Amino acid sequence: MDTMTYPTFDPQVHLAFEEPSRILLMRDIGFDNIGVSPVAVTQPFQLFGPEAISIMRSEIQNPVVRERYGFASNIAHDGQLRGCARTRTIHIRRMEASRRRGHSVQIGWYRLVPSCDYEIAHINLSATKTEEQANAELNALHVRKSLIHSDEGIDVGSSADDKPIVGWHTDSYPFVCVLMMTDCTKMVGGETALRTAEEDVIRVRSPTEGCAVILQGRYITHQALRALGAKERITAVTSWRPRSPFVRDDSELRTVRPVSDLNELYADFAEYRLGIMEQRIYRARKEMRARREAGQQLDTLGHKAFLHESAAFLNHTDGEPVEEDKASFGFIETLDVPDIVVEFSV
Predict the structure, then answer these.
(1) What is the pTM of this model?
(2) Range of 121's domain?
(3) What is the mean pLDDT of residues 121-129?
(4) Residue 85 dihedral angles phi and psi, to the nearest 5°
(5) Residue 223: beta bridge partners?
């Protein structure tokens, strides 16, 4: 357990939640009837105050946390911290729990919960630059052709010769909430790029410190673009799924298995999937009993459909935990889509 001490979490001080002012829908980017919600992505919205971000940053700077929970992969070149919220970044976990109690997250028609404990606040890191290096990037940027962003914070455009922080991918879980933990005052770029059904690229403005965006990343190909003029770019990403066990859940471990403690990840995944199955079976049994008590015949076709759906759900669950000696660590299969060249705006 971390021996460092932190101020007591106070929602009145640390939370600064504001509703997103704009939400882009799946149909707006050509994905009708795809995903588990009509919501594609939100505009950045305020989530935490400055003191909360300062405390969380101090936790992830702990050398023990960096050493124990650090992972790198081919699509996240500068590294990630994964699984630290359970035992080491205690304040991050407490703030996440309090935020869930104080502000229920609802996207489209569904309330969301974190996919599992292991996926609470995994940290994406970028290489640290000196003040001189950051200023040099900005000076060089002023002589490049720029693209003016709209006031809405969401733009269609083409992309960058700088390598993205995280390459093109879809997520393992339905939704992600990406919290910015960096002062972006001087930062240029750093957007999340999304691919539409027509293969256009939409860039969602990077949130400022303490702000977040929510993205239905399981069904939208996206990447995190590199920022210029900032000494670093640190984000905390929490994966979410619908709270209801009766909503389709096709979560997978493809993008997280290579950068995880498999014992922790597999245990969380198995537990929540069995929990879903448990609640589905309970409801099916309850409905069956009610039909019998009402003198109705068994709905044989309906029951068989439930069994077939349950078998498919369990088969999918069975296919995700790959034996450790067969798992590929540090390498995430990339998507075969053209790279983009980002034109940054000043």
Answers:
(1) 0.81
(2) 11-259
(3) 79
(4) -70, -25
(5) 193
